[in-house]
Amino acid sequence: MSARRPLVAGNWKMNGMPDAIGELRATMAGAGDARCDVLVCPPFPLVADFAREAGEGAVGIGAQDCHPEEKGAHTGDVSASLLAAIGARAVILGHSERRADHGEDDALVRAKAEAALGAGLLPIVCVGETEAQRDAGEAEATVLGQLDGSLPDDAGVVVAYEPVWAIGTGRVPGTDDIAAMHAAIRKALVARHGEAGQGIRILYGGSVKPGNAAEIFAIDDVDGGLIGGASLKADDFLGIVAAA
Ligand code: PGA
Q1: Rounded to two decimals, what is the model's pTM?
Q2: Which domains does the chain have, with CATH numbers?
């Protein structure tokens, strides 16, 4: 057992209308005595209302991206400081969908993580290999390279390992593969941050469901999960929170 408190974060992606606040309320009702940290990350326009609803309670609200700069001429972007001002506690950064859809590279993800830290937000920095990279035997090198380029020097972050081929597919790596990757990430974090690297939480993400969460969360150095599809319904999400 590690001293790290597990974190289960729901990534709603581009899902949820204003009435989905009902799912947040149900999550809050069921997560009151959770023995892990719980985050719900809805689309930007819902963050303020959700944060007001969640208050200082056990469920925190996060966003799914931010801009590296604090303000300025960046049409359509949102700053970390605005997110913090409206009550967000965390922000997901460098998700593979943003790396693919918006061409985000490691340097940009790192700049965003630094902005998030500066605003007092917890950055959840995502890394993960594609199926082609895994098949070519390059999974670990890919992930460690992303980690090296995307992480700020400050150890106040969370890392999410999400194999791209496991996201939204119902496919999950074997427990040995998850264990090996999380151990490699831990080693890299300790090499970079010293003892502080032991305190950084490493989440697994990619097709985590209520039925497989307990097995995944029992793996060494898996400190919780980043949950997509199964975070949209409070019942499923709470089943995963219970497993942590
Ligand atoms: P999934 O998504 O749980 O739907 O596979 C995870 C993620 O992309 O964060």
Answers
A1: 0.97
A2: 7-243 (3.20.20.70)
